[in-house]
Every structure is written in C-alpha cells, then in structure tokens.
Design a protein that fits this description.
By secondary structure, the protein is an alpha/beta fold. It folds into two domains: 241 residues, Aspartate Aminotransferase, domain 2, CATH 3.40.640; 127 residues, Aspartate Aminotransferase, domain 1. The strands form three sheets. The chain has a seven-stranded mixed beta sheet with strand order 1-9-8-5-4-2-3, with helices on both faces. Helix 5 links the parallel strand 2 and strand 3. Helix 3 packs parallel to helix 9. The longest helix has 19 residues.
C-alpha cells in the first residue's frame, strides 16, 4: 500500500469541493478580505453550534490563549496552573505575558489534567487554571469549576483538540467543550477536527464583559476606531478562512462520527493484543478523537514502532516526546526529572496512529496489521 497520510485533508476537501470553492469565490468577488459578512456569518453559526453567547474569531490558537489571559486581566507574576502533558502553546502563552506557568501532572487514563494536583499547586499567587482537553475529550470540568469557585480562580479552556465534544454534568445537563469555563479557546489549524486552509482561532464566552474586552484585545485595544483604551494586538481570522470554516462547520458532527468509527475499528483490532492499551473513553465526555493514542507496554519502544511503521508507509506521531518541565525553554529550578511521573511515563510510551475523516476499511486494516506485526516481532 502507498504511503498513508496522518490526516487526509485532500480527501476531505474533494468531497465538499464545490461548496468550498463557491464560498471562497464569493469572498474574492466581494473583495472583503479582512472582516466582512463571511466572518460574521461563521461567528454566528459557531455560536449557535456551541450554544454560547459570544464567539470572537482570531488569528490562531496560540493567540486565542494569549488574548484570553489579557482579557482576564492577569498581571506579570500571577501564577497560572496548566497540564505538563500538552503542546507547548499552552505554556508559551502564559510565559509570553510574563505570567508564571505552574505545571501539574495528568491522569494516566484520560491524559487530562489531574484535579487533585491542581488543588495541591494553588498558592496565594494563583489566578487562573488552563485545563487542556487533550486528544479529543474534555477534562473533568465540573470538578475544575468547583475548585475554581472555591479559590476564586479564572478558568480558560484550551479546546484546540476537542471542539465538538460534549461534556455531561452530574445533573445530566450537557455543554460543549470550551463553553464551561470563563473563556474557551480553540485553533482552526488545518489538521484540527474543524480546520481551515491556514491559521485561525477563536475564543468563546458567555460573559458580556469578557466578550467586550476580548473584542478590544484582538483589535489593537480599540472599541471606537483610532481610540485605544488598552494595549491590544492585531489578531484577526482571515475572511477566506472564515468562509471555509463556515462550510466545514456543517460537517463537524459527521467528521466526529467518522473519527469515532475509525477509533472503534482500532479498538476492536487491538483489544486482545498484549502490550497495547487503547484510549480510555471518559464517562463524562464524548471523545472526538483528534488523535488516537496508544500506550505501549514494557519492552515496546515507541520510537522503534514509529520507525517500523514509517518503513511500511504508515505515519505515527509521538505527542509529546519531552515533558514541558524538561524542555530547554521551560527549565525551572522548581521542577526536576521525576516530579511528574505520569507525564514522564506517557512521554516515553505513547504513539498516535493516523486519524481523520477519510479512512477506508482497507487503510485501517493495513495500519492495524502493521502495528500488530511490530508488537508480535517483540514478543
């Protein structure tokens, strides 16, 4: 079989080519390349989909995190708690504002932030929590929000990998990931479950005051043109990207279903294979499988598996090979190797398989056969 993609964006585009092309042509014909009706239309439709009062588009997911912290009024030296097992952007946004990132460990099953570890890390300097909904399912938001209320902390959800996921509270009520905290953020990077054809991002909130502040921050600190009330930034979602996203938003639920179908195939193929642990599915969150991530047992090296799969035309990604506290840019005397046992273990034994909306049974069969072949070669 020819080399398989980690994410089949071309196949996804081909299925809705006419809709996408027409939407982009409308933008070109209108000459509204920044702002304009297409951005407002997507914003309104995403608000309806998420069931949230305000969606504010921006240039990318990292900007979204940065803007959220600026809008929250966080000041240099304030401590912000987040997960150690995450993409660097989460901590990067904190550090860029001269805030203090406080890293905590994650759960071994969901890979999401450990609520008890959050509470143990709270000090009188703690001002916010940034839970990351990693790989496609929400962190334990009900417990996090109770903790935040107890300690008067701001909550910013990093929903870059879980847009479309549903969170179910203990009373049976349901909310979309990213709409539970004070502010939610997301990325529309092309490989995301809802991805554009370049960079893009957005923030979500039900708070009118925060929404007004966010709108100022993304537009140079302006509410009235040329009157700058605060230090802001220039972070806008391109109109062409908004047009693409508005089309793809209509398919987001079906995209999530297709990813779950692929995950089910993987689960069934690997269920009796010693040395492979398939992804845990939380009882309080649906899983939209931005990534399908295996944990490997003792004696199986994820870099060796990655090389084996590559030799057989199958991509495999290791998210993430180095914990944040051991990254050169984030070395901190507060932390040392061994302080985050779950994160450090995951960084040494996880591998993610191709996951997208266009899998065929043939491709899934081939991928699973190669994974099993590698495992059996080590037994």
């Amino acid at each position: 079989m020819k080399n398989l993609p980690m994410v089949d964006l071309n196949g996804q585009y081909t299925k809705i080519k006419e809709e996408i092309d027409n939407a982009m042509q409308e933008v070109v014909d209108s000459a509204y390349f920044v702002g304009g009706p297409a951005v407002g239309k997507f914003q309104n439709n995403l608000e309806k989909y998420l069931g949230v009062k305000h969606v504010i588009p921006c240039a990318n997911g990292t900007d979204a995190l940065t803007i959220a912290m600026m809008a929250a009024g966080l000041k240099p030296g304030d401590e912000v708690i987040t997960a150690n097992f995450t993409f660097v952007a989460t901590a990067e946004a904190i550090a860029m504002l001269n805030l203090t990132p406080v890293l905590v460990d994650v759960y071994d099953d969901t890979f999401n932030i450990d609520v008890a570890a959050i509470e143990n890390a709270i000090t009188d300097k703690t001002k916010a929590i940034v839970p990351v909904h990693l790989f496609g399912q929400a962190a334990n938001m009900e417990a996090i929000m109770k903790l935040a209320k107890k300690h008067d902390l701001f909550v910013i959800e990093d929903t870059a990998q879980a847009i479309g996921a549903d969170y179910t509270f203990s009373d049976g009520s349901v909310a979309k990931a990213g709409t539970i905290g004070d502010i939610g953020t997301t990325s529309f990077f092309p490989s995301k479950n809802l991805g554009c054809f370049g960079d893009g991002g957005a923030l979500f909130t039900n708070d009118d005051t925060l929404a007004a502040m966010i709108k100022k921050v993304v537009n140079h600190g302006m509410e009235k043109r040329y009157y700058h009330d605060m230090i802001g930034m220039n972070s806008r979602l391109d109109t062409l990207q908004a047009a693409v996203l508005d089309v793809k938003l209509n398919y987001l639920d079906s995209y999530c279903d297709a990813r779950r179908d692929a995950a089910d195939y993987y689960d069934n193929a690997f269920k009796d294979i010693e040395g492979l642990e398939t992804p845990f599915r939380s009882p309080f969150s649906t899983h939209v499988f931005h990534q399908y991530t295996l944990k490997l047992g003792d004696g199986l090296d994820h870099f060796e598996m990655q090389d084996f799969l590559k030799e057989n035309g199958v991509p495999g990604m290791i998210y993430y090979p180095v914990p944040l506290h051991l990254q050169k840019a984030y070395l901190d005397p507060r932390y040392k190797e061994g302080d985050f046992p779950v994160t450090e273990k995951l960084c040494s034994n996880v591998i993610s398989l191709p996951m997208h909306t266009e899998h065929s049974e043939e491709s899934l069969k081939y991928i699973t056969e190669k994974v099993i072949a590698f495992v059996q070669s080590k037994n």
